[in-house]
Structures are given as C-alpha cells and as structure tokens.
Amino acid sequence: MKDPGQLAILLLQIATIIALSRAMGMLFSKFRQPQVIGEILAGIMLGPSLLGWVWPAASTWLFPAGASMTVLSMLAQVGVLLFLFLVGLEFDPEILRQRGKTAAAISISGIVVPLALGFAATYPLRSLFDPAQQAHLFPTALFMGAAMSVTAFPVLARIVTEWNLQRTEEGGLAIAAAAVDDVLAWTMLAAVVAFAPATAISHGDAGPMLKLLLAVAYVGAMLLIVKPFLKRIEAVFDRQGSVTPGLLAILLLTLLLSSFTTEMIGVHALFGAFVAGLIMPKRNKFVHAVTLRLETFSLVFLLPTFFAFAGLKADLRTMLDPTMIGYTLLIILIACVGKLGGVSLAARWTGLSVRKSVTLGVLMNTRGLMELIILTVGLQLGVINQRVYSMMVIMAIVTTAMAAPLIQLLMPRVTRRGEDDKIFSILIPVAKPKSGGPLIELAAYLTGGDTTHHRLCAVHLTQPTGAEMFRSITGDVLAPADRLELEPLLETAREKSLQVEPMAFYSRDVPSDIARIVRQQNIDLLLMGYHLPVFGHALLGGIVHRVLTGTDCDVAVFVERGLGKPSRILVPFMNSSHDRLALDLAGKIAKTTGAAISIIHVSQHADRKTAHPVIERAFQDPTQKQAVTIKVVAGDSPASTILDEITDPDLVIIGVAEEWGLESSLLGMRPERIAQDCPASMLIVRRYAAPKQ
C-alpha cells in the first residue's frame, strides 16, 4: 500500500485527536473533574510524553514534520481565536453591577499577588531557562507572572454550576471576579507580547510603548466605531429572529479583522479575538443564537486540535529527573500561594468567612485551557523553553484538578432533618413537558393529597451552552423558556391543590446531578419517566440505569399507557426487597383511590404460606379499606407466568429483578419482554439498599 498523502494524514490526525479528546473528556467528567483536564491529557498522550515514548514509529508516522503539521497548527490557532471570541461574547457587564467593587478588589489581588510572586521567582529559577532567555529575563519574568495569575473562567463557571453554587455568595463572587480576571489577563498578555523580544509572531520594529499605544488606539476605535455598528446588527437580528448566514459572516469578519489588526500591531491575534467578542451586543437571545452557531464546532472540532498541538510541544519525560520534579512542585506551590492565597486574603478583607474565602480562592485557582493558551503563546514568543512549558502545563492540570475535591471538602455538610425525617419526600425529574402531568398525578395518588407528611419536589435539568452557564449566575438559574418544561406539571399540581417545590438547573451530567439533589434534599422516592437509551431498546438502560444504580433512595420508573384513576392494581411478587416496595406503593395508591389489589405470587411450588405473612404486614393498616386478593401460581418462567395472568389491570407495580426480565443494564440491547408486552401502565420499582458500614 502506498504511503498516504498529506491530506490523508491530516484527516487521520484530526479523527484521532477528536476521538481521544472526547473519550478522555467523558472519562474525567465521570469522576466529577472538568472535562478539559481529560482533553489536555489526550493532547499530551499523543505527544512525545506517551505515544512518542512508547511507540516512536507510530508517533512519527501519525505526526510527521511537513504540511499536515503546519495545517494542524493553523487549525489549532483558529480554534483558539474562535474560543476567545466566545469568551468575550459571553462576558456580561451586568454581572458586575451588584458585586463590582468587591469582585474587582478580589480579582486585582488575585492578579497582583501571583504576578509579583511569579515575576520574583523567575530570577532565582533562571537556570531553568535558555541562555537567550536569561539575557532578556525581564519579559520572561513578566510572562511567568502573567501565567501564574490567570483564571480559567469557562472551567470555573462549569464547577460553579455543577456544584450548584450559583446562588451562594462565594459562587457569585467567583464568577464576577473571574470575569474581571479575564479582561485583565488578556490585556496583560498583550502587554507581555509587546515587551517580548522580536520573534516570528511579533511583527514590525515598533518598540513596546508604541505597540501599547497602538493597542489602546485600536481598543478605542473598536468601542467608538465598531460597537455602534454592531448594535445595528442586533437590530437586524431582532427583525429576522435568527442569525442568518449574512449576519454570521459579518460577525466572523469582525473577529478575523480584529485579530489581524492586533497581530500586525504586535500584541497577538488572541487579544483582537477577545476584544471582538467583548464589544458584541449582550442581549440574551442574540448571544445565545450566536453561541449555538459557533460553540459546538469550536469545542468539538477545532479546540481538540489545539490540545493535540499543545501536547506535542510538552515532553513530560524531562520531568522524571528528581531535580525537575522539585522545581515543578515549587512552581505549583508558588502558583497556589499566589492565586489561592491572594484571592482568599482579599475575600477575607471584604468580610467573607474563612470557609467562603478559601472556597473562592480554590475556584479562582483553576487555570485549565486559559493557562494552556498563554503557555503556548510564551513558547511561540521564545520567552520560555520546552522544559518550563512542560512544568507549567503540569501546574495547570494540578491546579484545575484539585478544585473539585477541595470544593467538596469545603462545602457545608448536609444534615438530616431531625423532626422532618417523618416527612416522605418525592422527587420528580422532568425532561419533557408532556411527561410532567402523568407523573404528578401518580404522585398525588401516592401522597393522598396529604401535605403535612409528604413533600413533592420537581426538577428540570438541561445541558447549558457556555453563554447560558455564564448567564445562570446573573439572573435565574434557568431562563424562563427552560422553566416552562415544568409548567404542565405545576398546572396539574395546582388543579389537585398540591404544593410542589420546583427546581431547574443546568447540568452536564444529569444522573450524577439527580443523585446529588437526592442527597441534598433528603429524598425518599425518586419518581421518573422512562427514556430509551441512545443504544439499545431496554427501558432500564442508559440514563435510567445510571439513576437506578447511582441514587441513594427508592426509585420508581413510570411507563405511562393512558393511566387514569386506577381501580385495579396488579403486583407480581417473589418476596424480594423490590417486590416489598411494590407492595408498599400499591397500598399507598389503593388507600387514595380505593383500587382493588391483586397480588400474584410466582413460585416453583404453589405454596401460599411463603408469601402470606409478608403481604399481611404490608396491608396491616386498619384504615386501608381496599380489597386485596392473593393468588399463588407455580411456574418456571416468572415473566411468562405473569403475562399469562394479566387480564385487565389499570396499573402493574413490579420490582426490578432478573426473574422478571427487568434487570437494569447500561447498554440493554433487547427490550424487556414484560415491559413491552404488558398492555397496562407500569411502575417499575427498585428498593435502595444502604451500604453496610
């Protein structure tokens, strides 16, 4: 077979990069770590640190020097430009109105302290740098300080939303301070680039001060000339109701020309991309529409190429030397003391408690992708070498990864409710509006309308875009359009005089967030609809499987087939803990509706004695007037036996069990027969078993 051409190699490079970065990102998100850590590590794995070390021939073949690598490099830089344009676009000045002064004080301290420490530490660490860098140590020290002081706003915003900190004082301040940080950081980067020695990406012979003056003039022109023009673009958007190809072309031209201008001035194209986003109209609908058009392509296609490009520049093999490990740990310590310490002290000075101040410092200490972008610029400028670059990449990964576990330690402990333990709490997750009504009707039958001893909560979770994640901090947790998902449920609840606590959140991992809400709200029963998984046909696969196996409460999955007020309830029974939960719920519904209950006990031997005591205990409440009939049936196939016995029930309540063919699995490739062939509505239940101490 002939050698592949440059185009074939480029296509294979991109396919490999996207596949590995998505896989690693998803893996790390399962451990409640920011997805960007996995994506950064995916890039490092493709570089000399792993692939080039373990299989040099494959590394050379997949990433050969030549045209494909040049194109990959350009794609990476375009991806970063588009990403920073979106970061600027998502910046909302409204966030600073309530917390502006406090956020500014915290942000300035979080910039100045690590900047000073990073700048000062460069001189005693001069031996790490090349001779040419030692000869021009001032721009190198300035760059090291700037790299130490950056905060990854997108990562911070995701951590805040995932841990539901939007409404906390420290969460709101972190977002506001990080927003100020973003503006200061990219302004500072422009200054660092201006002071850097002449390189391939530093055009012209203009001195640093002239470059800075030109940059100030450029920003003034963007604010005074381009921004008013873009206001007219927003008016066109309002008339047309969408971002047309023509409007999108104008926005992209603004981005490209702005980046070109700052690149020619000598303060880097990244600064121009950020400013172009910063001056865009900030109304929610416009930002949301533009973000939807650009974000997915940028995050899925272009940014992974940047991770790979950055990973190819890092060589962690040089870190195996004990001396280098010591230097790396020292850099991590300086970065944490500067950023975490500077932010925490400033927050404490503004009146926050110690816990809130440290939480704020931990949040602001995340660096992630922003750090990687700045480090790549420094490597291109020649102000740092590959060795220091690799150390700083490790620092970025460590400071980002440490945020989630530290936040978990710092969050206030959720305690049980004491007297409220007698309250039976039901949580109803709602994905689509049409599923809410039937679920709340079933909840009404379970509670009997008793609001004294029962509590109903409804939650809608949706995956946010970057802009929505930013705006969730400034206003409501979800936009009004998203909260409408709960409206049919709430309307039915009002008709039945039920009190429901509605909740709506952005979520990047719905099953994990449902489990978190269950713990925080002390939920006793999770009542949800079923959702077919992406792969397979099983009702208990995909998201439902993850909820069933990862939630610390009883779970009931409702398969709705036109259930009205039930008059006949069938409970298949084999004396498992799940079957006993089915009996309990059947009793609650029958007490409200007066429905007759038929219990079919399937056994290899038709012995009524084995089931009778358990069933009697389940219905020993003297206030229950419902008729209960028990039938013991012998059969080798419980599922077939039950299907043969079903005549005309309105509702079948059945426990999760392998014997019924209702064992949950992540990838259920065949539908469960009993769920598929049963003509009545079904409630499939799982009893929670607390882990043994």
Strand order of the largest sheet: 3-2-1-4-5-10-9-6-7-8
CATH architecture of the largest domain: Up-down Bundle
What proportion strand?
A: 5-15%
Alpha plus pi helix count: 29
What's the average pLDDT? 81
Q: How many domain units?
A: 3
Low-pLDDT ranges: 199-204, 414-420, 470-482, 533-537, 664-671
The 3D shape can be described as: elongated
Number of beta-strand segments: 10
Sheet having the most strands: 10 strands, mixed
Question: What gyration radius follows from the Cα positions, in whole Å?
Answer: 30 Å
Indicate the CATH topology of the largest domain: Na+/H+ antiporter like fold
Structural class: alpha/beta
Q: Tell me, what is the CATH class of the largest domain?
A: Mainly Alpha
State the end-to-end distance: 61 Å
Q: Give the % helix.
A: 55-70%
